[in-house]
Amino acid sequence: MLLQGSGTAGPWGWLTLLLVACAARASEITFELPDNAKQCFYEEIVQGTKCTLEFQVITGGHYDVDCQLEGPDGAVLYKEMKKQYDSFTFTASSNGTYKFCFSNEFSTFTHKTVYFDFQVGEDPPLFSNENRATALTQVKYCCV
């Protein structure tokens, strides 16, 4: 995940975000969004990949931000104004860099804390072998 934005997150805030994103290719980030600021994030996605963007404003003002997601061609795939939280799922229509931005430009004095989770692709199954005994199957056979 590539990070870029406008505003004043400070050098340590950016370093922390960058280390977290690089160390585990993190898809969950919590960040501060100053008043009158916009913060954008970029993700390279392969065509046909299912993706989900979820976000929530944790602190600040009326707990609302603007959010917009654009495809590689600049087409707006999702746009919501003054939302506290939301979730949007889509399938990438083409290869390229997708951009999603959070804006607090409408606020003149209140900064926000925003959490987001951007999932690219399907989660792998928790258990690779579904035929093994689990606590639930053991209880099921015990009670029959």
UniProtKB/TrEMBL annotation:
SUPFAM superfamilies with a match to the protein in the record: Supernatant protein factor (SPF), C-terminal domain (SSF101576)
Protein's UniProt name: Transmembrane emp24 domain-containing protein 7
Topology with respect to the bilayer: Single-pass type I membrane protein
Cleavable signal peptide: 1-26
Entry similarity comment: Belongs to the EMP24/GP25L family.
One GO BP: protein transport
Domain (GOLD) ranges: 38-120
